[in-house]
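Preliminary data (for renewal application), phenylalanine complex.
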Amino acid sequence: MLDRIDKVLEEIDSFIANASNDVEEFRLRFVSKKSVINELFEEFKTVPSEQKRELGPALNNLKNQAQQKLNELSNGVSSKASGSVSDIDVTLPPVHNSEGSIHPISQVKNRIIEIFERQGFNVEEGPEIDDDWNNFTALNFPENHPAREMQDTYFIEKDPDVLLRTHTSNVQIRLMNKKKPPIRSIMPGRVYRNEAISARAHCFFHQVEGLCIGENISFKDLKNTLYHFSREMFGKDTKIRLRPSYFPFTEPSAEIDISCFICGGKGCKVCKNTGWVEIGGSGMVDPNVLDNCGIDSTKYSGFAFGMGIDRITMLKYQLDDLRLFSENDLRFLKQF
Ligand code: PHE
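Predicted structure:
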C-alpha cells in the first residue's frame, strides 16, 4: 500500500507538470469521494492495526498534498514552470494600462506650427544655452541698456558670456547668419527668465517667434499674417489690435492683442473687462539687426513676432495658474 501511496504522489506531480491544469479534473481524480485517495482510505480501514501506524501518516500526507495542490490550482498559482497560459487567473479584475496624453503646451504648439506651415513658414530650432551676441548684442540691445534688464537673465557664473536664452530670438540671429533671404520661419522653444515663480510667472516658459525677410516686406504683411493666425487659432470672428510698443530689435514695434474669444469683446474675467487680450510682441526687423547678420538692409526688410505658448494655452483653456504646466499632476494632464 505504501508503494501505491507513492505512486499517487507521483501522479499528482505529473498531473501538475503536464496536464492542462483542469481544476475539476484534478478534484475528481484526487480529492472527491470517488478519488483514488478516498479508495485508499477505504482500504486503510481493513489493514491490520500494526500497519496502520506507518500507513496512517503517509496517507494523511497524501491527502494534504492533494488538497494543497487543488487550492493552488484554483487560485491560479501552480507549481508548474511559470510562463504557461495557466498562470493567468482570468477571474482577477483587469489591470488598466493608463495611456499617456500629449501635454497641453505641446498640443497648442503643434497647432500653432500647423497654422504657420500652411502659410509657408518652416520650423527652425536653436540652443537653449547661448551667448550674449545671439541673445542680446546682435539683436540691437546696446551694452548696459536697460532693455537687457527687462529680461531677467540667467548667466553662467563662471562666464557671463554664456546664458540661458531669454527668448527664441537667438534662433533668428543664427538663422539669418546661415541663410540668406527669402526667409519665412517660426521658432518654437523653451526660454528662461529669472522670475519669482507665481501663478502668472515662471522661470521657464515657451515661445514661438516668427521671422519673414524678403524684398518689399511691409507692416501690412505682418498684420495680415497675425490676423490669419488669430482667426485660425481662436475663431473666425477674432479681431486683432496692434499697440505701439518698444523692442530693441524691431522698429516700429507693436504688442499683439486679440479680441477676447470668450466674451467676443464685450468684457469678461479673462480679458479683465477690456475686450482684448495680449498674446505677444511684433514689429519690423530693425535694419541694424539685418546688418549685424550680413543681410543688406537697403535691399531687404522683414517682420518678426513672438508669442507666449503658455499664455495662449492658458487663454484657450481658461487656466489661471501657470504652475500647473510643470507640476506633472496626472489629475490635470488627464483632462487634455
Ligand atoms: N523676443 C521678444 C520677447 O521675448 C518677443 C518679440 C519677438 C517681439 C519678435 C517682437 C518681435 O519679449
